[in-house]
Design brief:
It is a single chain. The chain is 48% helix and 16% strand. It contains 37 helices and 30 strands. The structure holds phosphoenolpyruvate and magnesium ion. Magnesium ion (MG) binds next to helix 32. Phosphoenolpyruvate (PEP) binds next to strand 24 and helix 32.
Length: 888
């Protein structure tokens, strides 16, 4: 019932039911919050119900609100359906007033404790309900501490704390223009209003926007009887994970503080102790906690993040939820739980979101560079991956520098929810205090940002940080290794991540599910994952990641080497066909070598080679001085280069003389490329390599274009094959990138062995948005909800319809037509799901995204077979089904 009760409320109700010790309480629903937001006042029925609920709670506990003997105290906490750690407000010790504080003092037999609880309430209440600055209370406390010569808060005795309370009440009255409310029901009502309002505070809105949390109606409010972790030495509070949230290892992992209350652990103000030490301090409680964590993990069949409080040797669980974890931990936990038979492989693949999965491919510090370097300090390795950036000390500076594309590392004593905007844009986060469950650690893990916390050697000054006596001013570049907790005083080179056995096992589950799916079982060649690879190195890379072929080799990228660009420019600048042939004869062996190496690397897997696509002017220098250099190099007049550049200038080059239009008007270029491909295949065959080339013609809009170019290519292949006596089968197909081509796909398919949707151009031409110029209005469109997603990232519904139409029409005349996607969308999980449902044969994406595609398709198969559509609250990339819904 998370939607109605929020995550916290739903879980508390559930664990209370299975016998976990939970302080009794009640939950006000998210629907009440929605009604409040709509009417701007508490619903009348709620106002009527609150006293009844409180009375019932009091009866259960033999306590009463505002009572002068056994006062009932409650906490008031937010809790939405999706966890938003620290973003909304919480009030503790509610129910205390001038009278009940005395009752608490005598019933607890601890006067100091009672007054400490009261001053905390006034502070929190003032801050949350009346927006009073926490700092104002801190200053008053500091003054009283100085007067009493107290070093820390705990040095203040009951009498001193009474002074603090008196002072706090004055501050409250001055700011709120009325005294601190003595009626506990008034306190409760005002607190509920404040928590409801916190749903729309700035940091909660920012958090939802960053995490693309949409469709929730508000927060629930949990009113729960207080238990105290600050009752003395047999009391404490802590946070624990049933497995290590950073590595995924099956060890009980947590931290606690004795004689502490509520947020002390999470806020990272005091550095807490490791959970194991509780075994020597309170062995019975430790044993009970172990039993509870086992029970909770079995019940939820997932790693849990548990908050607990010990009050006078009695253990209470205040919250449990699925623990946030790093990508590596998510994979390890999923794989281990399959092995432990706790979850199925289907569940395992759904357990790792695409964002988390991407995290494991985060860069790391190059081992070679690290060898001779010594870390200047270490902290706790809170979130993995390496980060290099300039030191900033505030969230505002980080945001300002991010706008200028400067990479930064945010260094703080601790972070708070106000820092969320900055934390979202930095490369890494470093804090001097706090543990693995501090705000910085939890939020960074969620964002996949490398983070180190609790670096005690670190001191922060106004404009610099000091580590072990050495000063590093703002702007100094440093490197963090979030996987080990090491900090380096200089920028170190980063390299790509290592693939662990767990990652391979996890991906084998994904592949197994794909192969087992009905459709792939019936048509083993459907749904493959290919790579967009332009060089032999890319091809090897792609194979390592599990590519089943190359779906797009952009040949123009091969012309950009220093030597090659010269020959290519010579070709463009040649004044006649003879001149062009001379330049092409120099390019031919280079292209042949490239194709041979790529096809050898891929062996029997298909390799789709696209003939030249971009407009020619892209290959000529635009600057005058560079044009002069080129003229000198080629022994021609600078004016010739300038004139040719001028001639080739187009107003809309992306819609101009490019793709097959070049092939038709300058046939020598495509002829050379087809020759190079054919000769490379012949070389492969002679070496016993069963190369599977596929020649792809770009930007076809009419079948005539394809017909002409296909005939020319076939003639070359046939002639070379005959000459070499090597039999060659080479598919010839086309990209579908122009809306007309999708609409006329039945005509085009009569001349094509395959289709590959170039969804980059298809999106550009469907919307009429230039691919290169979208940045000037896209952010606005997204913010104003004119567009739900960047259409160049996630397939738009209209483009998806063209893909479906083109596929259907193509196959209506060419039944077995192989159809793929090779635009950027081929690596986007939401678009992969669309491609799968459109009946495509494969998607092709950059080598780095292949594992992501392997997982995404398995997830979609599992979801579809379950025929369940889980709620989409994460980024669309992570939840293909949700995005598909949007695209309908
Ligand atoms: C496309 O248009 O989707 C495509 C793959 O080609 P390019 O990005 O090279 O234009
Ligand atoms: Mg294109």
């Amino acid at each position: 019932m998370k939607d109605l009760l929020g995550g916290k409320g739903a879980n508390l109700a559930e664990i209370a039911k299975i016998g976990i010790p939970v302080p009794p309480g009640f939950t006000i629903t998210t629907e009440a919050c929605a009604k409040f937001n709509q009417d701007k006042k508490l619903p009348e029925s709620l106002v009527r119900d609150i006293p009844h609920a409180i009375n019932r709670l009091g009866t259960m506990l033999s306590k009463k609100f505002g009572n002068t003997e056994e006062p009932l105290l409650v906490s008031v906490r937010s809790g939405a359906a999706v966890s938003m750690p620290g973003m909304m407000d919480t009030i503790l010790n509610l129910g205390l007033n001038d009278k009940s504080v005395k009752a608490l003092a005598s019933s607890s037999n601890n006067e100091r404790f009672a007054w400490d609880a009261y001053r905390r309430l006034i502070n929190m209440f003032g801050n949350v309900v009346y927006g009073m600055n926490h700092h104002t209370f801190e200053l008053a406390l500091k003054k009283i501490k100085e007067a009493h010569k107290a070093n820390s808060d705990t040095d203040l005795d009951a009498e001193a704390l009474k002074e603090v309370v008196a002072e706090y009440k004055l501050i409250f009255k001055k700011h709120a223009k009325k005294p601190f409310p003595q009626n506990p029901l008034t306190q409760l009502q005002e607190a509920i209003v404040a928590v409801f309002n916190s749903w729309n505070n700035e940091r909660a809105i920012t958090y939802r926007s960053i995490n693309n949390i949409k469709g929730l109606i508000g927060t629930a409010v949990n009113v729960q009887s207080m238990v105290f972790g600050n009752f003395g030495d047999s009391s404490g509070t802590g946070v624990a994970f049933t497995r290590d949230a950073s590595t995924g290892e099956k060890i009980f992992y947590g931290e606690y503080l004795m004689n502490a209350q509520g947020e002390d652990v999470v806020a990272g103000i005091r550095t807490p102790k490791k959970i194991e030490t509780l075994n020597s301090q309170l062995p019975k409680i430790y044993k009970q906690l172990i039993q509870i964590k086992d029970k909770l993990e079995k019940h939820y069949r997932d790693m849990q993040d548990i908050e607990f409080t010990i009050e006078n040797n009695v253990l209470y669980i205040l919250q449990t939820r699925s623990g946030k974890r790093t990508g590596n931990a998510a994979i390890k936990i999923a794989v281990d739980m399959v092995k432990e038979k706790l979850i199925s492989k289907e569940e395992a693949v759904l357990r790792v979101s695409n964002e988390l999965f991407e995290q494991v491919f985060h860069p790391q510090i190059d081992d070679k560079a690290k060898k001779n370097k010594k870390a200047i300090a270490t902290g706790s390795n809170a979130s993995p991956g390496a980060a290099v950036g300039a030191i900033v000390l505030t969230s505002e500076d980080a945001q300002a520098l991010a706008k200028k594309n400067v990479k930064t590392i945010l260094v703080r004593e601790q972070t708070s929810p106000e820092d969320i905007g900055g934390m979202n844009v930095v490369e890494g986060i470093l804090t001097s205090t706090g543990g693995m469950t501090s705000h910085a650690a939890v939020v960074a893990r969620g964002m996949g940002t490398p983070c180190i916390v609790g670096c005690s050697a670190l001191h922060i000054e106004d404009d610099a940080i000091v580590i072990s006596g050495k000063k590093f001013p703002i702007g100094t570049s440093i490197t963090l290794d979030g996987s080990t907790g090491e900090i380096y005083a200089e920028p170190l080179p980063l390299v790509e991540a290592k693939i662990t056995d767990d990652i391979n096992t996890f991906l084998s589950y994904a592949d197994e599910l794909r192969k087992k799916s009905k459709r792939v079982k019936e048509h083993p060649s459907s749904f493959a994952i290919r790579a967009n690879a332009d060089t032999p190195a890319d091809a090897r890379h792609a194979l390592k990641w599990g590519a089943q072929g190359i779906g797009l080799c952009r040949t123009e990228h091969m012309f950009f080497g220093t030597e090659r660009i010269r020959h290519f420019r010579e070709l463009i600048l040649a004044s006649d066909s003879k001149g062009r042939s001379k330049a092409l004869s120099k390019l031919l062996p280079m292209q042949r070598k490239d194709f041979f190496q790529i096809m050898s690397a891929m062996e029997k897997l298909p390799v789709t080679i696209r003939l030249l696509d971009p407009p020619l002017h892209e290959f000529l220098p635009q600057e005058e001085s560079l044009q002069r250099d080129l003229a000198k190099e080629l022994g021609i007049e600078p004016i010739q280069v300038a004139q040719r550049t001028q001639n080739l200038h187009e107003h809309n080059p992306m819609m101009g003389h490019r793709g097959c239009r070049l092939g038709i008007t300058y046939p020598e270029i495509y002829d050379m490329q087809v020759q190079a491909i054919t000769e490379a295949v012949i070389q492969c065959k002679k070496k016993g390599i069963d190369a599977k080339p596929e020649i792809m013609i770009p930007l076809v809009g009419t079948y005539q274009e394809l017909e002409i170019l296909r005939k020319r290519a076939e003639a070359i292949i046939t002639s070379l094959s005959a000459k070499s006596r090597v039999s060659i089968t080479c598919k010839i197909g086309t990209m579908i990138e122009i809306p007309r081509a999708a609409v006329k796909a039945d005509e085009i398919a009569q001349h094509a062995d395959f289709f590959s949707f170039g969804t980059n151009d298809l999106t550009q031409l469907t919307f009429g948005y230039s691919r290169e110029d979208i940045a000037s209005f896209l952010p606005y469109y997204l913010e104003a909800d004119i567009l739900t997603n960047d259409p160049f990232q996630t397939l738009d519904s209209a483009v998806a319809q063209l893909v479906t139409l083109g596929t259907e029409k193509g196959r209506s005349v060419n039944k077995g037509l192989s159809v793929g996607i090779c635009g950027e969308h081929g690596g986007d999980p939401a678009s992969i799901a669309i491609a799968y449902h459109a009946g495509l044969s494969y998607v092709s994406c950059s080598p780095f995204r292949i594992p992501i595609a392997r997982l995404a398709i398995a997830q979609e198969i599992v979801r579809t077979s379950k025929q369940s559509q889980p709620r989409n609250t994460k980024k669309t990339q992570s939840t293909p089904v949700g995005a598909k819904r949007k695209n309908k």
